[in-house]
Specification:
One of its GO terms (molecular function) is phosphoenolpyruvate-protein phosphotransferase activity. This protein has 13 helices and eight strands. It is an alpha/beta fold and about 325 residues long. The radius of gyration is 19 Å and the shape is globular. About 45% of the residues are buried. Bound molecules: phosphoenolpyruvate and magnesium ion (MG). The site of phosphoenolpyruvate (PEP) has 10 residues, from strand 2 and helix 8. The site of phosphoenolpyruvate has 10 residues, from strand 2 and helix 8.
């Protein structure tokens, strides 16, 4: 039993009965790179690339981007790195994107929608990612933020492939994309659910509004319902559907996410150990039963309490 506990403390994420749930890290810039690479993960599930674009008067040149991606790919050599293309707009406006003032920036031209105005930005970024990938040994996937329709997902995947990037997916962080996950997945290779924005848009509650924190609770049943719907579409299509929002780093919620069929969880490096241990302490059937409990709870608080009380001890 001691040896089991020790082996559960390291290595790939899996349930007690061996269903794999890949454990990955979220990475937001070069500063956290060495700590993230040293953590025991299967790779990067979300490389936020905004850091390259912020605080400048023009978009970073292709060479500069290529060097920055190359550093990440080198640090994660032999592992997976999911690069998310630029998610500017909303809370992260950039002067050179010509976004101007928007009355509702969260509902405006952000993420992949910027491509409607400035297609060159995405092409430059995909070209830089592809060049850096060719110089390193990481397994590089790309995905787009703020996809709302199956057509956007398919168009992004086609763009990525035109740059030689063969594994292209979309984030599911808009309820419309979650509801149509089957059609979204038909046109791309994988999906990654961003529970931060998916919660914001499902509950119509600005994620920056502290006084609405109860509506933004990642245990909200309507959010979990959308996650389950997308995960089931992934299972039917035989395509990976992960979670890369903050929800993935809560060990109890991770059990629920595994129970609805999510195939990977991407989180802050500090959360990896607790999530790994939680998974190792439960069979898939136990995770499924916990997911059933969470989804039938009347609200977020009851869901959290029921799963915290019903889960096996996590130590
Ligand atoms: C999300 O929306 O859940 C997400 C992971 O993306 P970001 O937090 O960068 O918007
Ligand atoms: Mg998001």
């Amino acid at each position: 039993a001691h040896r089991d506990a020790l082996s559960a403390a390291r290595g790939p994420g899996r349930t007690q009965d061996g269903t794999s749930v890949a454990l990955l890290v979220n990475l937001g810039g070069a500063a956290d790179l060495s700590a993230a690479a040293a953590a025991d993960s299967e790779g990067v599930g979300l490389l936020r690339t905004e850091f390259l674009y912020l605080g400048r008067t023009e978009a970073p040149a292709r060479d500069e981007q290529c060097a920055a991606y190359g550093k990440v790919f080198a640090a994660f050599s032999g592992r997976k790195v999911v690069v998310r293309t630029l998610d500017a707009g909303a809370d992260k406006p950039l002067p050179y994107l010509g976004q101007g003032e928007e009355p509702n920036p969260a509902l405006g031209v952000r993420g992949l929608r910027l491509d409607r105005r400035q297609p060159r930005i995405l092409d430059e970024q995909l070209a830089a990612i592809a060049t850096a990938r060719d110089q390193h040994d990481a397994e590089v996937w790309v995905m787009a933020p703020m996809v709302s329709t199956p057509a956007e997902a398919a168009a992004f995947a086609a763009r990525a492939r035109s740059h030689g990037l063969g594994v292209a997916g979309t984030m599911i962080e808009v309820p419309a994309a979650a509801l149509r996950a089957q059609q979204v997945l038909a046109g791309c290779d994988f999906a990654s659910i961003g529970t931060n924005d998916l919660g914001q848009y499902t509950y119509a509650a600005d994620r920056m509004a502290g006084e609405l924190a109860d509506l933004l609770d990642p245990w909200q049943p309507a959010l979990l319902e959308l996650v389950r719907h997308a995960a089931e579409a992934g299972r039917r299509a035989g395509k990976p559907v992960g979670v890369c929002g903050e929800a993935a780093g809560d060990p109890y919620l991770a059990l629920v996410l595994a129970g609805v069929g999510v195939t990977s969880l991407s989180m802050a490096p500090a959360s990896l150990a607790a999530v790994r241990l939680a998974l190792a302490a439960h069979t898939l059937a136990e995770c499924q039963a916990l997911a059933e409990m969470a989804l039938s709870a009347e609200d977020a608080r009851h869901a959290r309490e029921a799963i915290t009380a019903g889960a096996n001890p996590i130590t």
